[in-house]
Amino acid sequence: RGRPLALCSHGGTGRPGSRYSGSAETLSGLVLGVYEKEKDDDGVLFTEAAASFDSSVSGKLRELLSLSGPPLKLGKSRVFYGLHQDFASVAVVGLGKKGVGVCGKENWDNCKENIRAAVSAGCRQLQDLEIPQVEVDPCGDGQSAAEGALLGLFEYDELKSKKKFPVTPQLHVCASWEPHTVYPLGRIKIRPCHRFLRWLTNRYNASQKPQSWIESEQMGAYLSVSKGSEEPPVFLELHYTGSPDSSQAPLVLVGKGITFDSGGISLKPSSGMDAMRADMGGAATVCSAIVTAAALKLPINIIGLAPLCENMPSGKANKPGDVVRAKNGKTIQVDNTDAEGRLILADALCYAHSFNPRAVVNAATLTGAMDVALGSAAAGVFTNSNWLWEQLHKASVITGDRVWRMPLFQHYTKQVTESALADLNNIGKYSRSGGACTAAAFLREFVTANHWAHLDIAGVMTNKDEVPYLRKGMSGRPTRTLVEFAAVLATEP
Length: 493
Ligand code: BES
Ligand code: ZN
Ligand code: ZN
What we know:
Keywords: Aminopeptidase, Hydrolase, Protease. α3 crosses α4 (about 140-155). A hairpin with a 5-residue loop joins β15 (about 320-325) and β16. By secondary structure, this protein is of the alpha/beta class. Mean pLDDT is about 90; it is low at about 1-25 and about 185-190. The two termini are about 20 Å apart. The protein has helices at about 50-55, 60-65, 110-130, 140-155, 195-205, 210-215, 220-225, 280-295, 340-350, 370-375, 385-400, 410-415, 435-445, 480-490, and strands spanning about 30-35, 45, 75-85, 85-95, 100-105, 110, 135, 170, 180-185, 205-210, 235-240, 250-255, 255-260, 300-310, 320-325, 330-335, 360-365, 380-385, 405, 425, 450-455, 460-465, 475. The chain has two domains: about 25-185, Leucine Aminopeptidase, subunit E, domain 1; about 195-490, Aminopeptidase (3-Layer(aba) Sandwich), CATH 3.40.630.10. The strands form five sheets. Strands 10, 11, 12, 13, 14, 17, 18, 19 and 21 form a nine-stranded mixed beta sheet that branches. The chain has 14 helices and 23 strands. The structure holds ligand BES and zinc ion (ZN) (2 copies). Ligand BES binds near residues 336, 369 and 458.
């Protein structure tokens, strides 16, 4: 906060202080920002860094920009060669209009979003040109520029033989160009799941609770899902104690951790089923948020809970019409085995209350209906607390990884509490209608905390090309919003 920082600074490979020597093996590139002018007839409006670069090359950049075509539109870039001895290529990127700031209609900060999109486009263009080291203009907001660079360059290619060209981005943090200072940015790393768990276990107060523990906790709803698979369940518990008062009530984050959702006996169609490897996105975002909060040393106590298991159709799997008993004693009729997320979360939410939390926030790729409702624009937030809504909303305006409030009406509660055989039914009475809302109403039956929020993140799980600074694939959303939220909360008394 207040200084440029990578999202996940662990495992950084940035090389501080290394400069382009002019030799072929250490080619450097530069990304510089330029604003859109109000009237397009009066030249170029540079950022501070771009202006000082331009004067270090005697105004050549301004000249070339005017000669090479119309003013750059937001997110578009143009590359120039041979301008400066330190930089083989200079990518100039369009930042849109200057000083746009927070937009009430869009619910985000246009300035920050524009910087993320533009810097990401510039970095990718230099990556395509196989420039290994790229210096980035902070564009007046180093944090957003760093996010644009790192998120824009990241692609999960660990399992491919042919990797994306590796680029080390650095943030330019000085007004003058010779000599100048760069700030290394860590590359985001995704560790293979098991290694990541072991790493967490060693580094944080983390435990992986086995099936015997889950049984002793009487988490019957969770166990009913996991028993359909050959793979045993693991309940992950992370403790980060960052508050100077170690007894301060914690924020408890709970994440849905279905490591594969086949649908179970209510089997999903095969087309697109592969995406259900990401049905642990809630667990992933919660773990990442806690690791990042710890890297930032936020003065707050956070506990992360993630029930992990598969949802598979074996001879031992849940059958439609089965009745299971959750940790709080409530019975649930499982009419659709594909509505498994709410079953595992029911038990995890009950357990979350044993920590006397100041707030409970869960994240889950819970319903296809959430994707139908909002698509990838925002995660749906269902909450019993106006205060919690305001905190989450405030955080999301800053990060651009947006949230939108959804209703928790009794109307929906009725549709899950009128079950033929049990206290609750795991699907709404009118099956598809208001599917995201009935799922949230179901979860609420396991909550007694005054400040609870459920984030349905099914719609933001993947990125095609909607968010310009994220590559295609699993999006990692809304990790940045959870981190920002924790940071906001850390400053609250
Ligand atoms: N994991 C899915 C929801 C999902 C769908 C996430 C698409 C991401 C993308 C969840 O377990 C599920 O299958 N929900 C059912 C609920 C229904 C049976 C009431 C759904 O949405 O169809
Ligand atoms: Zn499912
Ligand atoms: Zn699922």
